[in-house]
Amino acid sequence: MEMDFTTLVVVIISVFVVDVNGIMWKLQPNVQKCLKEELQSDVLVTGDYEVQDAPGQKVDYVVRDSKGHILSQKEDISRGKFSFVTENYDSFEICFISRVPPQQRGIAQEVSLVTKRGVEAKNYEGLGEAAKLKPLEVELKRLEDLSDAIVQDFSQMRRREEEMRDTNESTNSRVLYFSIFSMCCLLGLATWQVLYLRRFFKAKKLIE
C-alpha cells in the first residue's frame, strides 16, 4: 500500500510540473515564423518538428539567442529533432523559414513543433536502463530532478525580484533628488525675478 501511495504522489506531481509545449500552425510561402521564450541558464531544450510536404518548396529552421548566436540550424527539413543547452539567462527564438522558387506559386505548409525543456527533455528511460534502475527508482530520480529545478526557479525568481526592488529604490531616489533640484531651481528663478523686477521698478521710479 505504501508503494502504491508513493507511486501515486510521483505521478500527480509529475503531471503538474511537466513542461512540454506543442504547437501547430500554417506556414505561408516565403514567410518566417518565430517562437520566442526566455530560459534560465544551463537548461536542456529539445524539439520534435514535422513539416507538411509541398513539391518544390523548402523549409529551414534556425535557433538563435538574443545576440544572434546560432544554437541549431538545418535546411530543407521535413521531420526531425534538435537540442541545445542554454549558457546564460536569455531570450531564445526558434524560426521556421519557407522558401519557394520565384516561378512557383507556393502553398501554406502545416508545421508542428513539440518542445521540452529541463527535466522533461532528459531521457530517463535510457538512464534507467544504463544504471539498471527499477521503474519506481527512475520516477523518483525524475522527481528529485524536478524538485531541484523548482528550487532553482524559485531562487531565480527571488534574485530577479531583488534586482527589480533595487532598481525601483534607485529610481525613486533619483526622482526624489531631481524633484528637490527642480524645486531649488524654481525658487532661485523666482527670487531672481522678484529682485530684478524690484530693481527695474525702482529705476523707473515706480516704487521707492
UniProtKB/TrEMBL annotation:
One of its GO terms (cellular component) is membrane. It is a single-pass type I membrane protein. Keywords: Developmental protein, Membrane, Signal, Transmembrane, Transmembrane helix. InterPro entries: Emp24-like, GOLD_dom. Residues 32-142 form the GOLD domain. It is found in: Membrane. It comes from the Eukaryota. It holds the Pfam family EMP24_GP25L. The chain crosses the membrane at residues 175-197. Its main location: membrane. Belongs to the EMP24/GP25L family. This is Transmembrane emp24 domain-containing protein bai. It comes from Cryptotermes secundus. The gene is bai.
